Amino acid sequence: MCAQELVLKQRTEILHALCSSGSAEHLERVLDILLAHGELLWEDYQNIQVLGRALYTNARWLLDLVYTKGVDTCEHFLTALKQVLPEEQGAALSFSGCCLNLEKREESQSTSTQTLLTHRPSLVSKLQGCIDGALEALVVSGHFNSGDCNEVRLPIHTPSQQARCLLDHVRSKGESAAKVVLHYIEQKQQSGSQNQEKLTPPKDFLKYQKKLSSSVSAQSCFLSTYGGTSHMSLDDIYTEGELELAHDCADVHGPLGLEDIVGTVGTVNEEADTVLVSGEAGSGKSTLLQRLHLLWARGAALQDFLLLFPFSCRRLNSEQRELSVQELLFQHCCWPDREQEEIFQFILDHPHLILFTFDGLDELKQSFSDEHRLCCPTQRAPVHILLFNLIQGSLMKGVWKVVTSRPEAVGPLLKKHLRKEVSLKGFSPSGINCFVRKHHSDPTVAAKILESLQTNTALLGLCHCPVLCWIVSQCHKELLGCGEGSLQTITDVYVMILQHFLQHQSPLKSNMGLGWLQEHLTTVLRLGQLAFEGIGTTCYVFSCTDLETCGVTDKDICMGFLIQSKDMSSTHSKHYEFLHVTMQCFFAALYLVLSSNTDRSAIPKLFEPQDIRDTGLTSRCFGACLPSTDQQRQVLGGEATAAETPNLQITATFVSGLLSQRHRSLWLHCCPSALMEKKVKQVSRCLSKGMQKHFKSIPQPVAGEKKSMHAMPDFVWLIKCIYEMQESRIAKDAISKLEVDHLKLTYCNIGPVECTALAYVLQYLRNPVGLQLDNNSVGDVGVEQLLPCMHICNSLYLRNNNITDEGIRKLIAKGIQCDNFQKIALFNNKLTDACTQHFSHLLKTKQDFLSLRLGNNNITAEGAKQLAEGLRFNHSLQFLGLWGNKIGDAGAEALASALENSKTLVWLSLVGNGVGSAGASALANIIKNSTSLEEIWLTQNCITRTGVECLIRALEHNTRVKSIWLRNNDLSLEEVEEMTQRESRLIF
Ligand SMILES: Nc1ncnc2c1ncn2[C@@H]1O[C@H](COP(=O)(O)OP(=O)(O)OP(=O)(O)O)[C@@H](O)[C@H]1O
Q: Which intervals hold domain NACHT (predicted)?
């Protein structure tokens, strides 16, 4: 049978092979090959790859086309298919006679654009690990702008799709752009091969490398949250999370890519080799590491590292023996079949080619300490000592380490050993979109879920956290069936998945009302006890004996909340863990709420403030409510740990939620109501007491200063607990006694979820406050969540919070209606000219507005003109900051004309705006006429002598202005000297 007939006859099977995984990768790779061989023209390719069209439709188009093109093309197609499909999938198809040589075509005199096409398959794979570098080269050479880069980096793209998108963009930019990319890849390869050339790995090294990478690949290709119910490959579901440097870095704008984690960007300590990826519970740290592992194992990223050893701190907890590093590597990750010593020696000799990853440092039983020094790689020590010495670099200096942890568990002791810290912020709004679409192969279901999220912004806020986004996607039936807005809190979402899993077991009784819990109460209690005891003893992996102790049965396991541990070590006995540690916290909370067997003091102890727990009392406090065997286990365990604090706090948050009025009806038939009432009272008391403690800690203000409270670590957590209770009485009770003028919550990891809770509580403040939320991750969704407390904010500080024009639109629409609202600071966000119309409206409407600071955004002359419109009609503004925008001379002229008759403006900053001398001479008019202006900042504005002369002349008419800042302008030293003599208020 000829190739053409084969294509026709096997059409269904081919379609299935290309598309059934739901991933477009196979199809796209076949297209790459056909393009490279000239079997498809560029126009053909565009006709097939239609954005937004179903994968199957695209594949059908391809089949139709190759068929009409004839035997040769069909033959190429089948050969490409054979090359691309995994063996087991290809086995179902007949490729008889299709064995063309698909080596790349060499063309004697090809242009760079042609080379991009003829080498497309290999370029796609080479580019995957270095997209960011290639983009940078294109930006630097002026071929790409940030829009091009953003399109390539779209989170919906897989790394290979990013590579293809980059190549397609380059093609449209022409020959010189193509040259830049080819040159970049060539250089990258040369530096890679130079690194490799110097090496002569022992003969068994490559075998070991292969064994390690296939074991890493096997461990990382599926996601465990889908383990119980369905298989989901990481490739199909992985969605980029938002990664940022934890500290400010002038050179970095925009989000980081995966490779930046080990790249040079944002390095704060050149001496250190440990990078920390920090993020809240469920923000995707383990998944991100898993992605890195998989890409490395496939040769698609981190190729500077010859070996990657992945460790899970959770599993290291169960290692009781003392080990040497060699034993740790080989026994916990991958056993070398031969030449152990030689391989280890090679590792020791080339530390910079080795990467260790440690997932979940916060889950380690011991808190980080640098007391026990160890530097000998053959010396045995307890595993945590090895780990701490590796992190510090005293052991195996030069080996790269990537460590993940919740932020709360990272103390100053660890920080001083970090090369840099990267924060994982969860999904961006487009990430949520992309994740839901990937999760559901049926686009109608995905669209319905996304629609429902848009109508419930509290829930949308929760979905920024990937684990919650996963639950919401998993429980779409419950979500869509439960009515708009009924899911508001984290507890609501976990109750939904509890119901989902329990009802999954009895599908016929899906309408059993509230009885579903009662029917499964014993299961819930048994799992709850297991979870509760685990949380108290930092135990997240359970042996069969642990399960037996709590009476957990096989049927309980089948419910899906527990999954079998993935384990790379050689132990063969089965171990279990909860689907996710937050699920363990939820079950621990269910146990505390539903069980009549817990100690009376269990709830108050759970709510004890962190500073008490940090003294080392943690385990003992919590231990008081555990059975005696566990207390012994803890005492035997020795060192107390502060590491479990985040999980205790999450458990407490769930306890608050479960005891809220909205969920009490669920427990009605499961537990005596008197007992329930008592627990509710306990929680309310704890929350109120916790808040009072905070308020008492506020220092009295110095005379003339405002009373200010800087939130302590537990403040946001207490607020979240209050929100979970959803009772306005409790919120009022807890907050109304707070008397401060300024509430400072900077660097507190505040995202949309925290904003929802803050607004819920702060709306009951008695007096207006300044709310300072600088350096958090509020974002547009968070801004929307803050609206309910806007009426009580007289000033709002939102520097560095990823806010865009859309967030501003909503914020200002509300702000205009709020009498107290007078000041806003929005430095370092993502604002453009599109937001200025809203500020202009605000300035026109609110004649008591005092301060507008929009520094370091992307406002140009157009935006400045819009602002000027508002300023012309405003009679109150005192402070205007536009530092670090791009308003230029035209923008400065517009502002000057609007402000020249202002009787209120005191302070104006236009630092770094390229206003030039023309701008300066226009601004001189404000100085000439103003009776209120005191300070004007014109640093770094390309102003020459001409501009400064205008300012000097204007100052002759003004005695009120105190200083004009003119540093870093286009003036010679002599000019500066001369002009300082003439006008002392000029500061150079
Ligand atoms: N980038 C991602 N793409 C797709 N799904 C993700 C992603 N990140 C997280 N998830 C989903 O959220 C779940 C929880 O994520 P993960 O365990 O990685 O969070 P974590 O930050 O390590 O949490 P913890 O600190 O509590 O251990 C995953 O099992 C997965 O279902």
A: 273-409
**Which residue from 288, 467, 561, 579 has its CB within 8 A of the most atoms of ligand 1, so it is best to mutate?**
467
**pLDDT digits 0-9 by tens, 43-55:** 889 888 877 788 8
Over residues 562-574, mean pLDDT: 70
Same domain, 248 and 347: yes
> What angle, 0 to 180 degrees and rounded to 10, lies between the N-to-C axes of helices 490-505 and 581-594?
90
- On whether the CB atoms of residues 281 and 407 are closer than 8 A, the answer is no
The one-letter amino acid at 650 = I
Q: Where are the beta strands (DSSP E) in 592-717?
A: 708-710
For 684-707, how does the pLDDT look when each residue is reduced to its tens digit (9 = 90+)?
999 988 888 888 777 666 666 677
Instruction: Tell me, using a 6 A CB cutoff, whether residue 405 lines ligand 1.
Output: no
Longest dimension (CA), the chain: 97
Together in a domain, 32 and 100: yes
Rounded to 10 deg, the angle between the 521-536 and 628-637 helix axes is 30
d(CA 72, CA 34): 11
Residues 102 and 123 in one domain: yes
| Atom 25, ligand 1: residue with shortest CA distance | 281
Together in a domain, 493 and 541: no
Alpha-carbon span 164 to 144, nearest angstrom: 15
Q: What is the pLDDT of residue 540?
A: 92
Q: What is the pLDDT of residues 424-435, one digit of tens each?
A: 999 998 999 999
Report CA(840)–ligand 1 centroid distance (Å). 42
Are the C-beta atoms of 523 and 615 separated by less than 8 Å?
no
Which distant-in-sequence residues (6+ apart) come within 8 Å of 40 by Cβ?
Answer: 31, 34, 48, 65
In a domain, 60, yes or no: yes
Do 99 and 124 belong to one domain?
A: yes
Beta-bridge mates of residue 886: 860
Residue 917: CATH number of its domain: 3.80.10.10
DSSP characters over 586-621: HHHHHHHHH-S-S-TTHHHHHT--HHHIIIIIHHHH
Query: What b/e readout covers 477-498, taking b as 16+ CB neighbours within 10 angstroms?
Result: ebbeeeeeeebbbbbbbbbbbb
Poorest-confidence range of 116-125, 272-281, 503-512, 975-984?
A: 503-512
The last residue of a domain, from among 512, 532, 566: 512
**Which range in 331-345, 478-492, 517-531 is most confidently predicted, on average pLDDT?**
517-531
Report if residue 749 sits inside a domain.
Answer: no
Same domain membership, residue 27 and residue 78: yes
Q: Are 954 and 928 in contact (CB under 8 A)?
A: yes
Say if 759 falls within a structural domain.
no
Assess whether the C-beta atom of 279 lies below 6 angstroms from ligand 1: yes
pLDDT digits (tens, 9 = 90+) for 121-164: 888 888 877 888 888 888 878 888 888 888 888 777 777 888 89
Query: Could you tell me if the CB of 284 is within 6 A of ligand 1?
Result: yes
Closest CA to 224 of 581, 627, 680: 581
Query: Taking a C-beta distance cutoff of 8 angstroms, is the pair 26, 82 a contact?
Result: no
Whether 104 and 186 map to the same domain: the answer is yes
Q: Is the CB of 765 under 6 A from ligand 1?
A: no
Non-local CB neighbours of 978 within 8 Å, separated by 6+ positions: none
Looking at the structure, tell me whether residues 488 and 525 fall in a common domain.
no
Supply angle C-alpha 978, 980, 984, rounded to 5: 150
Report how far residue 762's alpha carbon sits from residue 770's, in angstroms, rounded to the nearest whole number: 11
- Asked which of 373-387, 867-881, 971-985 is least confident by mean pLDDT, the reply is 373-387
Query: Residue 985 burial (CB < 10 Å; 0-12/13-18/19+)?
Result: middle
- Residue 628 inside a domain? The answer is yes
Among 595, 468, 649, CA closest to 657: 649
**Total number of domains constituting the chain:** 5
- Determine the structural domain holding residue 88 and report its residue range: 3-197
Q: Report whether residue 407 contacts ligand 1, using a CB cutoff of 6 Å.
A: no
Query: Distance between CA atoms of 885 and 830, rounded to whole angstroms?
Result: 11
